Amino acid sequence: MIAWQRCVTVVCDVCAAAAGDAAGGVAHFAGVGQARAALGGEGWVVCAGGQVLCAGCAAARVCAEQGHDFGGWRGCRCGGRVRGPAGGGCARWRGCLRCGESEFELGGGGGPAAALPSAGAGGRGAAGPPHAGPARPGVPGVAG
């Protein structure tokens, strides 16, 4: 049978990602309330002005407003066998625990020679860790 049905789908207002279902397709909900309840557990947020953000964009927004929540530095795994630029030591990196943004330092001698931010926002395209979770509750401008 082919039947016409009305449903609610959710799309991020920033990156246009659609909320997915368990099978990898677009999630369909019977109503707005059901959509809000289901997506809250997935890290999606509805901002005070009604803007809908996926977990990655919500985390990036929090970091843009409050700064990154970097974890500890992680060292290179080469064990010093590979020399860095201009004879410096190995690089090290750390990632934001909220959005996954990474930064790198080229080491050598007594400290870092340069700090290099990662190429991608929200951890997308960066060599650091992937998005580690939804934005933290109690963020200004974010409801629910």
Describe the 3D structure.
The protein has helices spanning 32-40, 55-66; strands at residues 45-47, 52-53, 74-75, 91-95, 102-106, 114-117, 142-143. With 144 residues, it is α+β, with helices and mostly antiparallel strands. It has a domain at 74-123. Strand 4 (91-95) and strand 5 (102-106) form a beta hairpin. The chain is elongated, with a radius of gyration of 20 Å. Mean pLDDT is 73; it is low at 108-144.
Work out the oligomeric state of the chains in this entry. Answer: single chain
Strand content: 15-25%
The end-to-end distance, rounded to whole angstroms, is 39 Å
Classify the secondary structure makeup into a structural class: alpha+beta
Number of strand elements: 7
Average pLDDT, to the nearest integer?
A: 73
Radius of gyration: 20 Å
What is the H/E string?
A: HEEHEEEEE
User: What's the arrangement of strands in the largest beta sheet?
Assistant: 3-4-5-6
Low-confidence stretches: 108-144
> What would the principal axes of the Cα set say about the shape?
elongated
**Tally of alpha and pi helices:** 2
Task: Describe the SSE topology.
Blueprint lengths: L31 H9 L4 E3 L4 E2 L1 H12 L7 E2 L15 E5 L6 E5 L7 E4 L24 E2 L1
Antiparallel strand pairs: 1-2, 1-7, 3-4, 4-5, 5-6
Give a quick set of tags describing it.
2 helices; alpha+beta; 144 residues
What is the structure about, briefly put?
By secondary structure, this protein is of the alpha+beta class. The chain has helices at 32-40, 55-66; strands at residues 45-47, 52-53, 74-75, 91-95, 102-106, 114-117, 142-143. The chain contains two helices and seven strands, in the order H-E-E-H-E-E-E-E-E.
